[in-house]
Amino acid sequence: MLEFVLNTAFWTLALYGLFEIVKNIIYISTYTKFQSDGMYLIIAVKNQEEKIEGFLRSILFKIIYGKEEYFRNILVVDLKSKDNTKEILKRLEMEYDNIKVLNWKDCKDMIDNIE
Q: Alpha-carbon distance 30 to 14, whole Å?
């Protein structure tokens, strides 16, 4: 009887773990691509090289792995930074599909052209 209970508990946990792995793979592959519609999170930055990477990674962690389902598209607008902020943003843009780095004029044009 004890062996049956242990086997049942083991297989239940194993199936639950497998279900969670498959669910996360589907979630990550489906929802991390930059989408043309939906909600946008627009972040304007200027001279924030020391803080911007940690800030964006914490937001991305909440979006990709957490329960935050509202924002899938992140637009980061550089307001003519004089430090390495733009280079950090470009590196993060290459690393993540749902980040787009723009200057203020391109962001305004994009917003104006939304139908």
A: 24
Model pTM?
Answer: 0.60
Decide: helix, strand or coil at residue 50. Answer: coil
The span from the CA of 32 to the CA of 39, in Å, is 13
Structure-block tokens of residue 45: 């930055």
Q: What is the mean pLDDT of the chain?
A: 79
Give per-residue burial for 24-50: e unless 16+ CB within 10 Å, then b: eeeeeeeeeeeeeeeebbebebeebbe
Distance CA 72, CA 96 (A): 11
- Residue 99's Cβ-count burial label (10 Å; 0-12, 13-18, 19+) is buried
Give the 3-state secondary structure of residue 46: coil
